[in-house]
Amino acid sequence: xxxxxxxxxxxxxxxxxxxxxxxxxxxxxxxxxxxxxxxxxxxxxxxxxxxxxxxxxxxxxxxxxxxxxxxxxxxxxxxxxxxxxxxxxxxxxxxxxxxxxxxxxxxxxxxxxxxxxxxxxxxxxxxxxxxxxxxxxxxxxxxxxxxxxxxxxxxxxxxxxxxxxxxxxxxxxxxxxxxxxxxxxxxxxxxxxxxxxxxxxxxxxxxxxxxxxxxxxxxxxxxxxxxxxxxxxxxxxxxxxxxxxxxxxxxxxxxxxxxxxxxxxxxxxxxxxxxxxxxxxxxxxxxxxxxxxxxxxxxxxxxxxxxxxxxxxxxxxxxxxxxxxxxxxxxxxxxxxxxxxxxxx
Amino acid sequence: xxxxxxxxxxxxxxxxxxxxxxxxxxxxxxxxxxxxxxxxxxxxxxxxxxxxxxxxxxxxxxxxxxxxxxxxxxxxxxxxxxxxxxxxxxxxxxxxxxxxxxxxxxxxxxxxxxxxxxxxxxxxxxxxxxxxxxxxxxxxxxxxxxxxxxxxxxxxxxxxxxxxxxxxxxxxxxxxxxxxxxxxxxxxxxxxxxxxxxxxxxxxxxxxxxxxxxxxxxxxxxxxxxxxxxxxxxxxxxxxxxxxxxxxxxxxxxxxxxxxxxxxxxxxxxxxxxxxxxxxxxxxxxxxxxxxxxxxxxxxxxxxxxxxxxxxxxxxxxxxxxxxxxxxxxxxxxxxxxxxxxxxxxxxxxxxxxxxxxxxxxxxxxxxxxxxxxxxxxxxx
Lengths: 345, 381
What we know:
The complex is a heterodimer.
Chain A: H1 3-34, H2 41-56, H3 63-85, H4 91-111, H5 119-130, H6 133-142, H7 150-172, E1 186-189, E2 192-195, H8 196-218, H9 220-230, H10 232-237, H11 242-264, H12 274-288, H13 294-314, H14 319-325, H15 327-337
Antiparallel strand pairs in A: 1-2
Chain B: H1 2-19, E1 23-29, H2 36-46, E2 52-53, E3 56-64, H3 69-81, E4 87-90, H4 94-106, E5 111-113, E6 131-133, H5 138-151, E7 156-162, H6 165-180, E8 184-191, H7 199-207, E9 212-216, H8 223-231, E10 237-240, H9 247-253, E11 261-264, H10 278-294, H11 301-323, H12 329-340, E12 345-346, E13 351-352, E14 368-373, E15 376-379
Parallel strand pairs in B: 1-3, 1-4, 4-5, 5-6, 7-8, 7-9, 9-10
Antiparallel strand pairs in B: 2-3, 11-14, 12-13, 14-15
Helix pairs in contact in B: 2-11, 3-4, 5-6, 11-12
């Protein structure tokens, strides 16, 4: 191995690591706020990428039907509850988000021709279809059992994952898709050729991380999420709605997931089930951070990316083994250094 | 439409239990899970198979095994004990088909597998007496690749394949014939179907400077190593396996897969075959039927394996009907004997000549070398 190969592998590792880092941040966020280990995180990666690919192929993405379907179900449940509780003032909001919004999205897809849009507009439309699924999934699957134990939430999470993978196969078929690169540019940096897409991935990931940090530090919603993460009961006593916090964290997780998918779709072929493994690698990063620390989770995820790149060079047959074995020493180290606190259920 | 057909088939099957004279075909295939891109066209093809054979009504019961071995075994047990099927078609992939052998042999139910490995019909295993298969052996494809490489003046080859049974099987077969054709395998790399990057493997391959690279993967995931190699500027020859022979591969690979060589069943280039080749007519008939139902360009060679299974049955059933009534042990045995006696039956992937020691029965007519030219499959002469 000479310097050039090491640099190329490093570049590749950091690019993938940046995606894993985004996902690990989303996992930490969702876990901190709702105690859900969000296994379906990866499905948003696949949905985001494949929805964009469908637009480019001139097809109607199946995620639109999912959005409409989930919206109708959420609206029915919430309207029934609102009528029973006699809180009529909630009705316009419920109808607006769950019925009118999907209808508007459908109108945009059918009336305008998304295949002729510029790339940026296609991306915005793809995000507009996929991201609202996050809060809807929270409403349907997790909100009714929000107070259950971590184990129950994990089981629900696995169920949601399996359901979404099945829907993904139905919507997008078994074969994968690629999307065109954001930029075809590439230039030589010393001995190493750097492609524009790589810079896009790294730049966009960094930007998203900075935006998230600002969101948590500066905005009232960000602070509400942090408060909920620190102490759910305390936050509720301070007038922060845990339902709102849950939905918001799922919204962010869906946004990060779908955006990651759109970032990697030009680099690799994305399949309906690609997301799971990417999400799992983000999860390894999140574990390194103990599912609590954002910076350590991000660093752990980049480490996973680098480890993956170098092990694919040295021992490609054992790559996954090496990456996932990383969890064991980390868990041993963490269980030795941190005092275990029984979760009060 | 498809769903309603299956539903109708189900109800008809239940109703037909009393009638007892209908032939029941149990199908288990991998319509979901990792092998879905193979299983879905097979499932679509089953719906096109004849609904009557030798004057007898045929019912199909289609189950999905989700590319999972345990589920395949469960499906087969269900088909045998609950539905009392006369014959089983399936499964899509090798591990599932291998796991099914014991059960179908015990229940004495003839089975036609749509998976590739030669081990499924290994004559050394007495249980495979009941098992037949329709896809070409990897070995037939591997010799074709090695011979073609030698013909192109290739001396050194790098191998990169899936880190599963498919990649490993191809590697084992390929190195066997590499020696015969004086090819040196200079790199042996693995990647997984869901990998997002193969840069590491590709750098290692390029450091070994091979004349040609053989990618052993199936469906669109096989495009990734080749696209990465092209992007890194590798200028040697590219070979793929017959696992990529569907149009989605061309869509995903785009300009990066131009000039790639691959071995394939003749049906992939049916229209380009000489008129003297009997496979041309049968292939074109099947393609027309499939595309009429699922749209132009939807054809995949994997569906052809299911179609061939249907052709084998249609050929064998009339003989078996002369000896016994469907639904009986005698009928299943007669059907097995009739399948084994298949001679010169033209399928879409080749011509079947079965014998007790060969439950596939393909010869050299079952494979051609194909080149990807201007985004289309071209018969390489």
